[in-house]
Amino acid sequence: MTDSATDSATDEMRFADVLRLRRAGRITEACQSGHAVLDASRASGQLDPVTEVQALLLLSRLHQELGEADTCESLLTEALDKTRGPEWLGLRVRALHGLGSLRLTLGRYDQAEELLTEALDLAETLDGASTGPATDASTGGAEGTDPLLLADVANELGVLYKTTGRLDEAHPMYLRALKIGEAALGPDHPKIATLHHNLGGLAFARGDLTEALRQGQLSVAIRERVLGPDHIETAADQAALAAILTETGDHEQATDLLEHSLSVFQQALGPEHPEIGSTLHTLAAVQYRAGNIANAESTYRRALAIKEKALGPTHPDLAATLNNLALLWHKNGRPDLAEPAYRRCLTLLPADHPLRHACAHNLDRMLAESTR
Q: Average pLDDT of the chain?
């Protein structure tokens, strides 16, 4: 084996160690280690170009999970610049997918759809071609055919459609991704858990609590078996299941799941990550349903403050918390606080979004009540 081949193999092993840290939920350690390996490998002058792009994609994913959007975007842009030409097609799809996912997270829905649609079109042309690493959605492993690349992009488009209220478009995307994923991985894999999580969220949005509960429980069961109960991905599924349990009236189990999820997120991601804000939002909803109005108001306020700091004051993810907080004030004799919260919620969502319609209805009802 030549020296350059030895160096390349060593780099891949080092980045595989970074990926193992991520899979263990040790995101900050993985990010620090990944940058150290990339810097050292570049300094040696022997870094394989494919391994370098895989490293950029892995690091972008880690920074996105840590809520560091600017660094994530910079890494993805660099990856796109390095993947021009037909020989890079698979890794280019991954970079487009990553940047589309980031733009979705930032609420830039039109940009996200453009990037993800391009990624889907390219992924559909690959069908058996080399797509880069087959061991992770973003990085890691040797080059080869990855049957999951199309599933990853279809799933992300499903998330986009669901987030923007296009529920009927989301469903076939999720089902397509699930069919590909189960054929490649079997039913007991974290990727399959993600798809059950997303299908559960879609059923919940459609008001089908029975299907939402079934999908949510499947997702949690798979994650707990494969990753353990204290992994951040398991915690995310537990928080989603808690939202469904709240609607079924099981406030005690929902609270237990949410408190556990918060503990995992705070340890892995820090106290001001958007995931903390989302989980607090769900906990506030549980408290409100259980009749703990004062606690619910305080928790909603905390959720809103974290989301505003992490995402900015105009991000669409603030809308649900604003609507729920406004409804709490509306129902408890504080229309002076409720009205501006409702109106702010309306400014954050597109005209055809279901939550915007619900918020507008709540505001109209409150204003009608005040004229009686």
A: 89
